[in-house]
Amino acid sequence: MTAESIHAAYRGDIAKKTGFIVLLLFAAAGLSMIGLGSGPMKFSVGRIAAAVMNTLFGTGFECPPEALTVITLIRMPRVVLALLAGFGLAIAGMQMQVVLRNPLASPLTLGVSAGAALGAGLAILTGFTVVGGRYMLIANAFIFSLIPCAVVYALSKIGASGHGMLILAGVAMNFIFSSVSTLLSYFSNSEELKSLSLWMMGNLGRATWSDIAPLTAVLTVITPLLFLQNQKLNVLNAGDESAQGLGVDVERTRIAVILLTAMVSAAIICFTGIIGFVGLVSPHIVRLLIGNDARYLMPASGLFGAVFLLASDVVALKIIEPAVLPVGIITAFAGGPVLLFLIIRRQGSRGW
Amino acid sequence: MVTVRVEGLEFGYNAHPVISGMSLDINRGDVVAVVGRNGAGKSTLLKCINHLLTPIKGTVFINEENVAAMSLRQRARRFGYLSQRSEQLFPVTVFDVVLAGRYPHSPVRFTRRDEEITAEVLTMLELDEFAHRQFNRLSGGEQQQVLIARALVQGAEVLLFDEPTNNLDLRHQLQIMRLIRSVACDKTITSILAIHDMNLASSFADTIIMLHKGAIFAAGTPSEVFTATTIGEVFGVEVKIYDHHGLPHIVVVDG
What we know:
The complex is a heterodimer of chains A (352) and B (255).
Chain A: H1 3-36, H2 45-57, H3 65-99, H4 112-125, H5 136-157, H6 163-186, H7 190-201, H8 209-236, H9 240-245, H10 250-272, H11 278-290, H12 294-318, H13 327-348
Chain B: E1 2-13, E2 16-27, E3 31-35, H1 42-49, E4 57-62, E5 65-66, H2 72-78, E6 79-82, H3 94-99, H4 112-124, H5 140-154, E7 158-162, H6 170-187, E8 190-194, H7 198-204, E9 207-212, E10 215-220, H8 222-225, H9 228-235, E11 239-244, E12 247-252
Parallel strand pairs in B: 3-8, 3-9, 6-7, 7-8
Antiparallel strand pairs in B: 1-2, 1-4, 4-5, 9-10, 11-12
Helix pairs in contact in B: 4-5, 5-6
């Protein structure tokens, strides 16, 4: 083979990966239309399209006010929250897995989710909040989810940054936070208990446009910063020593990615509650399809996560209509077996 | 012409010295083999040369430039480091592994030129048929060749090999050593190897540096360094030295 043909084959691979990303974009768009059509009230595709056009380009599209209200104020925030949360959890999981050199890393594994759950539990049950007012629950969850980040950061500062150590620290924090959460629920009345357990199961139903705004702001700032790390992540894949020898400041990259991904996860979890498996499983499925080049794996994992969470939410809405299941149950139900499959498959091959 | 100059190098962990007072000059285009017992400081010396480990004392110069004053990426453009462990955590193709060698030149994104250089080096080292295979599925010898390709793509002047022939069968040991030799001749690249096999070192290296207890015990040509006396003192093993086409060949005397 000549150098030109090797390069051409490489370019062909890149084109395929880009194609896969475009395909996921179409899937997300198509699924969004299905999501907007899901719920107790049925609307025609034309109505939904008109409502979407109305939101995007202002007035001028015929749509009855009732349909417009249901679609733009109830369903659209829900769909957008599913897309944003799925995207954010999946890119966070993918980058955590690389910098911690651990295929099982995800927002759940570092204890970020459990920290947020404790913050929410305290707000619901004891009224203890750091910030008052409308956003008290959200702010509390966010602030408490930063505790595990601080612990992870401190551990890496004192030199205990081996990837096994960080995951073990995450497990320990998961235990500590959930024991306190369990203690809280033991002393709560039935209404508080329901509110807390709904939150612990992950739920997109309470989404409003005023939740979407701050989450969009966080993702708009952090996603490009994370994308810039991808070049370094590709080098880090060769191991810490080799990466350092190739000019990557390994320790700094690791800390930056841990903090940024934890912030993304916390920002999502405080609006949605605990949604597991999206961050853990999405990157692995995409890896099987397009490989590990982080520059393509990250956007593709994000889009896959968005599609996965939105699809789960549609299932949650439809499976026992008119009742609505918490979406976290669906993601766990779908994600758990996938994870088992990946573990079994791993026995036969080298690496993930 | 001296490429690498080490002056008064000292390194240790928690007041436990691994290397002390080490000075040496290495000429451009030489293949230098560093030998010695386990724990003698071979790997530590290599990592101090490109400052993967920051020395406690002493200075390393590459072409008269102080390595300590360089940024991580500047160092990576001068030194290629080939560690013992080479497995990639998540599987990637050989092309991607080699392309990563362009990082010190393109830290934000790889250009078309980076990809072309990668393809050219893969062809030059006759690794073209591996280009799109998974790195982790290659044999140890093939992986070493790929890592040498990565170091060439890096544009490094000095290659530091931490036990490049470990776990390789005889055929692949020879193949890797020949490749290191030919890279040194063609491109006037200097190679420094930490290596256990003294007969391989004798056949392929211009200079031998024998370390003992964190210091240089002997340095020079293979014939100068590999004598029954030095090996006896450093390794505590009785050997006989035979002449093999003018180079020393070491045979252990079973006693």
